[in-house]
Amino acid sequence: MSIVLPIDNLAKPHFTALPPLALYVHIPWCVRKCPYCDFNSHEARGDVPEEAYVDALMKDLESALPSVWGRKVVSVFIGGGTPSLFSAAAIDRLIAGIRARLPLTPGAEITLEANPGTFERQKFADFFAAGVNRLSLGIQSFDPAQLRVLGRVHDDDEARRAAEAALMIFGNVNFDLMYGLPKQTVEGAQADLAAALAFAPPHLSFYHLTLEPNTLFHRNPPPLPDEDTAADIEGAVHATLAHAGYAHYETSAYAKPGRACQHNLNYWQFGDYLGIGAGAHAKLSFADRIVRQVRWKQPKQYLAKLADGQPLQEEIVVSRDDIGFEFMLNALRLADGVASSLFVERTGYPLALVGRAMEEATRRGLLTADPARLQPTELGRRFQNDLLELFLPERRGPRTTVSPLLQVEATGVTR
Ligand SMILES: C[S@@+](CC[C@H](N)C(=O)[O-])C[C@H]1O[C@@H](n2cnc3c(N)ncnc32)[C@H](O)[C@@H]1O
Ligand code: SF4
User: In Å, how far are 107, 110, 222, 265 from 104, measured between CA atoms?
Assistant: First the structure.
């Protein structure tokens, strides 16, 4: 397949319709900072200023409204940090405030991230009454020894009680779990997974523990399993989850039929998202451009800048050179990929923009040969970095790190 590149004079994208719009809300506090975590989360010393913060979020949202006039919001994700640290009254005010300012589509998914260490049955019930219809529980592991090593504020008993209550109250629940934990064996990982599967959660996010710069684990690394053991754990996890009826629909996400996370799917399908709160990221399309924004990261700084009417730390217009890579960085995380037509719909450019890279990826067996889809092969999923590198803008050559504006941290998605 040979694709001609009639794009040299296309400096700007052209949209016939704008993508679906989601809303991300960042709550930047936790009971305690976990030693492996590089999210924009800060230990809450004393009471969290939830009243002032919800006021700020409303102000932030109002200042952003002109950029999304007339658009409906398809999903809301309240992430962190630990949003469940906030009282149910604060979450109620937040959701009511969002609804009063932005139209939500009927039945829009509203997810809240919760830490089992902040679990109270009545609080979960009140979150549900406030409009949260999906709970994402940061369980990490059901192994009490691992939870201690991971510096978690909860034990396995609390994790079990939170899981049980979440499933009873919300039904639509995700467990965040990690593997490749200190000294973990394949048998240990299988036992941990079995403990999670005993609850039959509709959705599981399974993250390989990574040593992130600026964390305690990076400075003082725990004894992690070697590469072969980590690969064996991953293989065993995949097989067990497939056998239990979970589709491995994205790099780290597994879902029972019909239970994929709508909010995250919108990121991966290169939809738009507004992000409010400290350090939140946004990607917004207009008739002739796509814009990325980052809000001030430190909670204090965010509150002060917002009071001055300056919530944005950075805003850039995505260039034609970067757009192909940015689209692929998201879409190729999906096992089924996306329809090729989505590239035009979501980037505003012809598919020819990535024609050469597609040809090369197909030739190397990393992308399926079906021209109607942009879909990674098994090999492409295993060697995702090699596949993505082909879509990097030529002017810069291979890029090993992703610009802060591309990082997914403050959008509720983990690598
Ligand atoms: C922002 S946290 C939200 C959950 C909540 N704060 C909690 O931990 O209970 C999202 C998830 O990212 C994952 N995560 C954080 N740091 C990680 C790391 N270094 N490697 C792999 N996964 C990580 C954890 O599974 C965590 O639950
Ligand atoms: S993993 Fe969750 S609870 Fe721990 S510091 Fe990060 S955001 Fe906070």
Answer: 8, 10, 44, 17
